[in-house]
Write a structure and sequence with these properties.
The chain is α+β, with helices and mostly antiparallel strands. The chain has 3 helices and 2 strands. The chain is 26% helix and 10% strand. It has a two-stranded antiparallel sheet. It starts with a strand and ends in a 21-residue tail after the last helix.
Length: 103
């Protein structure tokens, strides 16, 4: 990871200038076997999943892939909320303390 300071003004900053923000650049490396990749690409069976967990014993690749595949089920379940006919924007909860509850 590389930290790059960014200043408010253009040009070379003064010696005592404090950066307005610090931008971090993340570098990475390919972590797969290059010899195994071409046959998979030829079969169109290559998928790249990125994670920041480097220890394969904590999250095995098969479990990571299963979690990724499970996201599509959740996306389909919430698809109805985006439908304009559902009128989700008309539903809301009252935060008022004086709200009357039906008996």
């Amino acid at each position: 990871m590389c930290a790059t300071p960014r200043y408010r003004t253009r040009g070379r900053p003064r010696q005592d200038a404090q950066p307005a923000q610090v931008v971090y650049t993340i570098t990475g490396a390919l972590a797969s076997s290059l010899a195994a990749r071409p046959p998979l690409v030829d079969q169109q069976r290559c998928l790249i999943l990125a994670t920041n967990e480097r220890d394969e014993t904590l999250v095995p690749p098969t479990e990571l892939f299963a979690c990724y595949k499970g996201q599509s089920h959740a996306a389909r379940a919430f698809r109805c909320l985006k439908d304009p006919q559902f009128l989700a924007s008309a539903l809301y909860l009252s935060k008022s303390l004086n709200a009357s509850w039906p008996s």
